[in-house]
Amino acid sequence: MEPLRDTIERVSVISTGAVAIRPEHVGPTWKNTYFWLFTSTKWTAPRPINVFVVEHRDGLVLFDLGQDRAAVTDPGYFPSGPMSLIYSRLAKFDIGADETLPAQLAKLGYRTGDVDKAVISHLHQDHIGGLRDLDRTELLLSRPEWESLSGPLPEARGLLRSHIDLPGLNWKPVDFEPLGDPDLAPFTTGLDLFGDGALTLLPTPGHTPGSLSMLVRRPGRAPLLMVGDLTYDAELLAAGKLPGAGDKRRMAKAVADVNALRERHRGLTVLAAHDPNAAALLASALTDQNGDHAPS
Q1: What's the predicted TM-score (pTM) here?
Q2: Cα(275)–Cα(229) distance, rounded to whole angstroms?
């Protein structure tokens, strides 16, 4: 492998509002998803809806797209009928007018038209909110995730097709390839986004069939791993604890793989979409110039 080059100029986090979810959603819990969804009486404190912004030498990359503000302004945003009860019990959103994706990008000095690539961890509504603003952007997601959109009862699986299958979007489903990079073990397949090792997409299914994560590597610094909803709390992931929604067997495998990668790269920072500590974790990682690579 060629030495890693310094092609990352800046990494930032923005938030498209806040969401309260059930404590069992964060986990861990022994309860079945639908059991806790219909019986839980508590909500968490508001948690961020994070979007990570990576300024690579060859283009501006987003990881996830947050929540559309229409979720709180448009009465027809969510499904009607029995499905509306599920969505109302799943999450409560608070999104201000200045918390849209375009408004948040503007705070970094960017417009949505500047975004070259958007990597989508999975297709749940609070990760695809900026789609309608990115008609010029290459939209990357795993092929299993893309194919899941065509499966039965998408709304019951958290997939709102009317907000995903929009005209004019540049979707690019990803087929993971052999990586041939021992530094990424136990991951053996993925996608090197720019061919320089700086941004690598890794399969971490479980929360959804095609959930993926993105590893950000920079010379002399510990890596960052953006994981979507593989966890809602980096400390819980480090302890091997699983969230309450998803395929527990597959999530357990993905969490174990991530923790094995953490052992290989001491100081690796896990950044989750709804971790209240994600911004602080990122800030700490960016001030630490001494990434310590564990021996093979």
Answers
A1: 0.95
A2: 9
